[in-house]
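Re: weekly structure request thread

Next one in the queue (245 aa):
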Amino acid sequence: MYKTSITKRGVPGTFEHDTRWTDIDNFTLSHLHPSSRPNKRSLTQALEYSEAENLPDIGCPVVQGKFFAMQCRMLGVTHSLEVGTLGGYSAIWLLTENPQLHVTTVEFKEHHAKTALHNFEAAGVADRVEIIVGAGAEVLPRLLREVEQGKRERFGFTFIDADKLNNWNYFDLAVKMSVPRACIVVDNVVAHGTLIDEKEALKDVMVKGARDVIERVGRDERVEGTVLQTVSDTGYDGFLIAAVK
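Done, posted below.
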């Protein structure tokens, strides 16, 4: 039953995986989010359509998606920001679990944005999503100006999963656009355990961006943060989660 192999999204020779991680997710989800749940079909269809459209298989794990949706529910979030739409899977989690929620999602690649729009429409949540196509480094400052001018609501939850070198830039802008006690998440910061490798940071932008945002958040008096390590069918990783003071 126990097996350790080297894999990343099913590709041998890259990162470790333990079959127990997947088995435990399958068991717990069968009880805590069974196939009878209303959004189960929409989430599955979003993954299937994204795969058919040749989007990279780099979205958040199922359990992580529900965890973020629960954060929005516990905080009573009405407006959420996402940097990195991909196929819309994580946003569908937030929207289907929180009927009061509106999501603004920023995506650099137009094909990804079109795929996400199809998935939002299929899930019946397109009327509560604003998709903005463009580079996050250009779009977020514009959103901040709109927030400061009173033209856009502040955000209660932000999910950052985009170009990793800009992790801190996006985080900093998200804080400035957040309500007090908002939650901000930066994904993939553990980077399969390479986070602690200083030499890896010199050649891997994911590691460099992860170390940078963690170090800066630790010095930022506007927030309080921690890192949660995760295991799943996507391998060993983790995310930074911070609360705005």
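Residues 1-13 have pLDDT under 50 and may be disordered. Strands lie at 4-8, 11-18, 79-83, 102-107, 129-133, 155-160, 178-186, 223-232, 235-244.
Next request, please.
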